[in-house]
Amino acid sequence: MDTTHGPGPGRMGEPEEPHGVSVPMPHHKVPYVACFLALIVLTVLTVAVALKRFDNEVVNLLIALLIASIKASLVALFFMHLKFEGKLIYLILIVPLCLCVLLICALIPDIVYAMPFDRMAEHPGHLPGQHLPGGGPN
Three-state SS across 70-127? Predict the structure, then answer.
């Protein structure tokens, strides 16, 4: 009987590929200083927009939300390293974001039809949705 261990059938002396070799992930260069400076500039811009009030409150709200969204995106992408993650992380991000938008849209009727604060001071015992004395609904 031949007990020598030669190459397997079909291998005919070819070198065997190494098993279990892991290749390290490339290190991403993250521009921390640039992100930090951008966050400082956006914070200064936030204060400037807060001091310079526009006549339309919706414009004030949209500008504030835009700046806050940019700042949150910078923090999430670079400081939390989400920019270098796989595609699944975006699905994990989109589902809660859709839920957040759905909840905000569901609460809009409560906000729109709520009693203004100045009328609540006139009628301290009045609950929203009840008819006010001497006239129509709140």
Answer: HHHHHHHHHHCCHHHCCCHHHHHHHHHHHHHHHHHHHHHHHHHCCCCHHHHHHCCCCC
Would you say the pTM of this structure is higher than 0.70?
A: no
Helix (H, G, I), strand (E, B) or coil at 67: helix
CA angle 95, 96, 99 (to 5 degrees): 90
64-95 tens-digit pLDDT: 999 999 999 999 888 887 787 778 888 888 89
Give me the residue spans of the domains in the chain: 29-80, 85-112
Residue 36 is which amino acid? F
Dist CA 72 CA 66 (whole Å): 10
**What is the rounded (10 degree) CA torsion for 38, 43, 45, 46?**
140
Amino acid (1-letter code) at residue 55: D
Q: Is the pLDDT at 41 greater than 60, yes or no?
A: yes
3-state secondary structure of 132: coil
Q: How wide is the angle at C-alpha 89 spanned by C-alphas 86 and 92, nearest 5°?
A: 160
